[in-house]
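dumping this here before i forget
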Amino acid sequence: MKTLTALTIVLLAVLTGCQSESPETAEMTPLVFVSFVGNDVQLARVGNLTASIREFAGRYAEAPIWVYGPAELLARDTAALNRLNALGVEVKTIAVPDETAWYFGSGMVMAAAKAEIEASGVARVVVLMGSDTIVLDEPSEFDLADGVNLGYRPVMHKNINPLMSEPLSPYWLRAYEILGVKEASFFPMVTPADSDTIRPYFNAGCIAVRPEIGLFGKWAESHKLLCADSAIRAMCEQEILRRIFTFQVALTGTILNNGSRSEMAGISDQYNYPIFFKEMYGAKRDFHDINGIVTMRYEHFFDNPIPGWETTLQGPPDKIAWLKKQCVGDQAPDS
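structure:
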């Protein structure tokens, strides 16, 4: 009887071990948060992002945070860098190749690609966020479900992207020709600001990716291809918005070329919520209510906030007070 009991215990242990995570997976952190800073303004803003993670991110509050930027920016002894160090942030340097430096967003592309490599075997998911992001609650949707390799948000509004009912412009046609994107991969997205149904266009400032799929590395390759094309360059010289958002066009083409829809998950509207977007850029709806919001974006709003904004914004009083304390006046560069 004792022998049977011992055998039963051994069998149960074996079966339990088979069903549990591998030691490597168990040791990995669920998320690593990543952002890029290219100047003093972004460096000050990312301090607010990292402070908000430590304050409000719940079970992810102590997750690794990696901030990438140019060596010359990160080599100085400033209050902004001291703040990041105090928050346990790893500050890492990144170089932007000369052939892509003319285009806005090139630093974010390179930071994402480098973070993806460095996160391999360290984190299950890399979360890339714009430096103007604030985390207000536990971001559990970034912790991707089994079988999902990408969590995404659409762009805020139509911008340079066509509606689903409109043809592609020469700029988009050329970009997709270079990248080999097929129309069969298109699917509709709805913009948060205006509820416009657009062709797929992914927001680079709020995206979660499993590092093992290599998506961010492929994004860097796609971006380099677009930047090297003379026709794309000429069209970007004619319209600055194309120059600003070519990096996001490269991301969209990369996603459409890699993986199936079943491997993608749209992240809910409680993420990347664009406060006061109507006041800054125009929108069909107001963004004045942070009740239930998990992450928000503020763009340049706190550079010169409208008087009484804190009474216009609805939500938990403690979080509004936190925003007022942390964000107002945070863009002043260090001397």
